[in-house]
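hi support,

uploading two proteins for the ticket. first:
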Amino acid sequence: MSRPWLRATLLATSLAMLSACERPPGWQNTLALQIGAPPPNAAEIRAAQTTQVTAPEQPLLVEATQVLQDLGFTVEESAPQIGVLAGSKDRDATEAGQVAVQVAATVALALIGVRYQPVWDTDQVIRTTLTTQPRGPRDSALRVSFERIVTNNQGASRVEILTGPEYSAGFFEKIRSGLASGG
């Protein structure tokens, strides 16, 4: 079998298989509604990211700014009049185990004649957004959310929302400790 004929056959077979895929009517609308939609447990995530603090809003924002900086974040946006802070920090995302697996897969596949482009994470940007809301003269609500943008060695990026309780709970603990000690 000649190579051009083989490629044409594989292309025709692939196109036939793709055209045979049935999609229900209105699939485009269903897909469009899913893109950017909040996760089904959004209320639970928001509740875990929020706490009540016994402090007026402005001192709370000052303490939150200091905690973010102590954690290595650069405060990029600060709008104290509406109770918003946003920051980020850059970190290395390379994990030796991930690189080793990708290199091993490349070598193993090369031995059987298959070309494989190894992919592993290289860099990450951790972003945080913090909002406050007054709940009286001495109390405030505080919400903090974290996400990371991971870039791999091929230049592709992905966003991961960090919703584990350890992220916000640890942050809240540092805020409360700072407020208790007077900043």
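and the second one:
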Amino acid sequence: MSTQPTLPQWLKVVNRLIIALNYLGIGFGTWYILSIPGRKTGKMRSTPVSVLHVNGQRYVVTGFETQWVKNARKVGWGTLRRGWKQEKVAVVELPVEERGPILSEFPRQVPGGVEYFEKLLNLPGDPEAFAAAAPRCPVFRFDPLPQNARDGQQVAHL
């Protein structure tokens, strides 16, 4: 039996719409498009993510291990797109002990996303509860990709 939460059926359709609007140059809210090479095929896989801005750094959080999380762990880089602007970035997973302060920002910066954490993880929507969920919620930081790693090679964890 899987411990993976079940996402709403309509989410795939909404994600495709957000991606399409973004590719038309329409970036809105906290939404960015994160594209990461598949760990088996190498084909770029895209998903909308809400980017948090904390102390001049950019982060993304998720409530459980998704395919993009597995891909990010394996390849360590991706493309972050918002509207017409696109950049290659290193995707660096934070250790559990560093996740709390970033997770506590999620309810403040992405209040519309809190309900998914509440429903899928049975997590109250307050910052302290999010910080306490650090062991089960992956958090990644986006760093500028080193110039010598921009050719699509696997990036060592920085």
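thanks. also noticed: The domain at 11-149 is CATH 2.30.110.10 (Pnp Oxidase; Chain A).
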